[in-house]
Amino acid sequence: MFRRFDALTRAAGDGHPAGMTSPLHISRTPRPFDPDLGAETLTRFPDLSSDRAALIAGTGGTSPYLKSVLEQEAVWLTEALDDPQGAVARVFADCRALSFDQLKPGLRQAKRRVAGLTALADLSGGWTLEQVTTALTDFGALAADVAAKAEIATLIRRKKLPGQTEDDIETAAGMVILAMGKMGAHELNYSSDIDLIVLFDETRYDPDDFYEARQGMVRATRNFCATLSDRTADGYVFRTDLRLRPDPAVTPVCLATEAAERYYESLGRTWERAAYIKARACAGDIAAGEAFLQTLTPFVWRRHLDFAAIQDAHDMRLRIRENKGTGGPITVPGHDMKLGRGGIREIEFFTQTRQLIAGGRDRDLRVRGTVPGLAALAAKGWIPQDVAEKLTNHYRAHRDVEHRIQMVHDAQTHRVPKSQDGMERVACLMDLDLVELQANLKDRLTEVHDLTEGFFAPDAAPEPQAAPVAFDTDIIARWPTYPALRSQRGAQIFERIKPELLSRLSRTAKPDEALMALDGFLAGLPAGVQLFSLFEANTQLIDLLVDIVGTSHALAGHLSRNASVFDAVIGGSFFDDWPGEQVLQAELSDALAAEGDYERQLDTARRWTKEWHFRVGVHHLRGLIDGATAGRQYSDLASAVIASILPIVTAQFEAKHGPAPGRGMAVLGMGSLGAERLNSTSDLDLIVIYDPQGVEMSDGKRPLSTRPYFARFTQALITALTAPMAQGRLYEVDMRLRPSGSQGPVATSWSSFTNYQQNEAWVWEHLALTRARAVAGDASLGADIEAFRQEVLISPRDRTKVLTDVTEMRARLAAAKHPTDIWDAKTGPGRMLDIELMAQTGSLLAGNPARDVHSGLDAAVAVGVLNVADAQTLKDTYDLCWSVQTAARLLSGQGIEVEKIGEGGGAFLCRSAGFDQLSELEAALADGYAQANAVITAALDTTTLDRGQA
């Protein structure tokens, strides 16, 4: 636990190998405020080199506190300067060996030595800020651990902790000590108190012993805190502060972890979330502490972009300024380096709030330290690189000044001295001219304030010009009654963005239509604080919202139920090129692997999929991609989801029933998924094929014979894809294309599948096979299925029988499904399904393995079922149908009624199909249907079978 300091000092040192001493490197020295006192201190350090003598004289001649420490520990410090890292390590080891009766004096001597050596290493420039704060922090954790375990050992010996023995002392009998604030982030300042939260793992105790155990833990907590903070003749170790625990006014100083979890789940506030960014299990039962922090992940790191945290943080800053009196202008004497304007807390708030906003989505932002946090935010594009560098530089400089202020009298203060002498002492410790120090400080404080204040309280945007449109006031008047606007906070934020919303609505082609669409969106929105905060912080999203609600009813409805998908737009890569199926699968697999709980994995998959699904829809809506490209992207997404979900379902199932017999299973995508062309509302046609390779039963806790094993597994997979959860459902799944249809088993064995296809399958089932594609599962089985598919397709066929069966099938489809109107591009003679059937027929007769419609139509030409001109007619009509179908699904989620889609919807429909007017598109559809129907009817006329050979 305390290796961090040693590793950090080696990494930042001057290259000495581990195990070798490394003398303190002196690059600067303080000058003595009182040279006589400096000389007096130096008399305790005979025979020092000149640079070490200057360091001792400057330190002892300026800081009364350090003068006392140097004189008390002169012999030890003289030797420690030859190997500071080794000296600190030896202090730590000595503390571990202290007997109970020597604990108080021993820890105080250790604190004195660490404080003196750290001060000299800091003032000399021999250690970086990070090395200084790490040494102080690690000693704080060590002291807490030693003191706490000593109290626990006493209680165990007195039988005051039921069920605990000497063996439990090492884990403090379940006591968890969390380091908070600067202690948690390894940023402890020179005279800091330490913020701790103390809990205990109640699961280590019998329920009947709970109250006795808690009483013992409370006593141990009070005693170990007193060991650290009581002032004795030897001084004190650390002032301890336990007020960051849940509801400190009414709770004991040590709580059960379960009680703390309940509090944060139900009552936790934004400032507590921010505090837990830096939280770290530092002492006691480290494993239990880390497990507790893991349970708080959903509380600290919200799933959505949490821009509402900005207002919370801003309000907190204002309350601190009011309560502490630090809100005045920047004047260096008396300025609070921590809480004042432009101070340390401003940088910390800026960093932590940005982390809270985005850390739920990006684990790389979940770092404890302020400097690492700034670096992570810059690396991910959440703040400009130059801002991160400036704030990092100012943060380090501020901390240096803070340390010098505290070194003078070991006072827990952050205020720059008001007196001339006090200011001069700080300048002496920094070896700066007083005027130079003041000017430098004012410049830094001012720049920090300028860089951070705008983030929390941006200047008011200019009022939008009055909308040139007089909107229906009755519609606007009912908005406050909607669920999203019933909370006071939601209503307040919405009132701030409403003028901008109305102004942008007024600039749309049909403002009244856009207002009605926005009204529908707001009515369906269950909550508004997060979304409205998102819009307030990113007003460019309002244009996208207006575009969506004014064009696509389906996307707007999806948004009202899943407003968090807007997070993806802010993520930075929303408008990048499509990454492809393999990248998507890797990204989702990584996201699922990061979740330990099965249900949370399924919810994560749903949330992730909705964001990518939304992205495809927005790109299509805005003309960045066409319908064909959207179809391929929807297919890539579905394939990636199945391939990523399958392993987690497998792991969950195998935990109960053991590994799959044989080589497992493969999932076949059929229909549109197999052909890699889906629309925004497509369901997934799937077949599961398994190969037990002669194994009759699984080997697990609850073994199953092969057939029920794979049947139940398939049901588990379908449930994982289709079950409605907190984040909705992934896809609808259709398995009717499996052998024997809905009457057959949900999973088919490899031997049954091959036998069925070779000996029992109907022509329509071989037609379906032309589009089959393995999308997930065992790779070798998938390869075998593909080889078999191609073998079946090239088998000799009775051409007349195929065309006759296809003709009958076409007639049955026409009788069963009638087109609703001209805009139903899917069902009916000469429309999508009809042309797809013709393409599948061509592929089957030609033995062509390609799955797409164009390739199938080319195959039909190759075997003489179509001529080139007719094939082109069908291709053109199919492409037109697809563009209308995909646009219609995006607009309404189903078929469209042109008179209801509005001007924006009509324009999108025309743009997708490449026409200027709806009337032109309608005429083209009618003509295309008629021509395609005529071509297909003639092609299937078995009386002209030999025309292709003529």
List the helices and strands and how they pair.
Blueprint: H1 3-12, H2 35-42, H3 50-60, H4 64-72, H5 74-80, H6 84-96, H7 103-123, H8 129-157, E1 175-179, H9 181-184, E2 194-200, H10 210-229, E3 240-241, E4 254-256, H11 257-267, H12 270-277, E5 280-284, H13 286-295, H14 297-300, H15 308-324, H16 344-358, H17 370-379, H18 385-409, H19 420-429, H20 434-456, H21 473-477, H22 488-506, H23 511-523, H24 529-537, H25 540-549, H26 553-561, H27 566-570, H28 581-593, H29 598-621, H30 627-657, E6 665-670, H31 671-674, E7 684-690, H32 706-722, E8 733-734, E9 747-749, H33 750-759, H34 763-769, E10 773-777, H35 779-793, H36 799-816, H37 832-846, H38 853-862, H39 868-892, H40 902-913, H41 918-939
Parallel strand pairs: 2-3, 2-4, 7-8, 7-9
Antiparallel strand pairs: 1-2, 1-5, 6-7, 6-10
Helix pairs in contact: 1-8, 2-3, 6-7, 6-8, 7-8, 8-10, 15-16, 16-17, 17-18, 18-20, 22-24, 23-26, 28-29, 28-30, 29-30, 30-32, 30-39, 36-37, 37-38, 38-39, 39-40, 39-41
